[in-house]
């Protein structure tokens, strides 16, 4: 859903479609998904901006930074799939280089990573192929500000 919301707010990104072989029902073939570079970039950029596991220890670069020779994202708040068009920005980089870790890394990395890498772009590509996504209210962009709150019961600290 975040991907579609971001595409509504970034119409030009929605216009750029990769060419995929579809089934007779117009569904993108699963085996094609990995080859669709711009789609992959849209999904990665969505996961960069709206990580699904945000409750881990948060990390954020407050400005453009070079860290141990790696350039850390520019224009952080902008939806810019192009940043992932370079092959160097894979989910897991070469050994010792992990520029992008939406699935974690190491022993406790996400066991569903391969499913997620397939499922997300598959869903997004078929939604974008089937529909044009635009604002419900003309000129008014959907509010994509997220909040993560933990609710707990009201507690009274007053003794009886
Ligand atoms: C886009 C989809 C997904 C994302 C972004 C994602 C992300 C993550 C992240 C960040 C972690 C924590 C890694 C760490 O602690 O370093 C994790 C753990 C895990 N994920 Fe996912 N996940 C996704 C989909 C899935 C799916 C589809 C499954 C199951 C089919 C799954 C199963 C798991 C399991 C079992 C763990 C715990 C691994 C462990 O602690 O050993 N995930 N995931």
TrEMBL record:
Q: Superkingdom of the source? A: Eukaryota
Q: What is this protein called?
A: Uncharacterized protein
The record lists the organism as Persea americana (Avocado)
């Amino acid at each position: 859903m975040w991907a579609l919301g971001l595409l509504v707010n970034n119409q030009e990104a929605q216009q750029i479609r990769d060419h995929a072989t579809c089934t007779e029902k117009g569904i993108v073939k699963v085996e094609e998904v990995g080859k669709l570079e711009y789609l992959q970039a849209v999904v990665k950029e969505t996961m960069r901006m709206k990580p699904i596991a945000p409750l881990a220890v948060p990390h954020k670069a407050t400005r453009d930074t070079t860290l141990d020779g790696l350039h850390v994202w520019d224009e952080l708040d902008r939806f810019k799939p192009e940043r992932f068009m370079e092959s160097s920005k894979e989910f897991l980089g070469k050994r010792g280089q992990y520029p992008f870790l939406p699935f974690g890394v190491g022993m406790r990395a996400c066991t569903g990573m391969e499913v997620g890498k397939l499922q997300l772009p598959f869903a997004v590509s078929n939604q974008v192929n089937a529909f044009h996504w635009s604002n419900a209210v003309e000129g008014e962009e959907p509010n994509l500000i997220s909040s993560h709150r933990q609710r707990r019961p009201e507690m009274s600290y007053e003794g009886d």
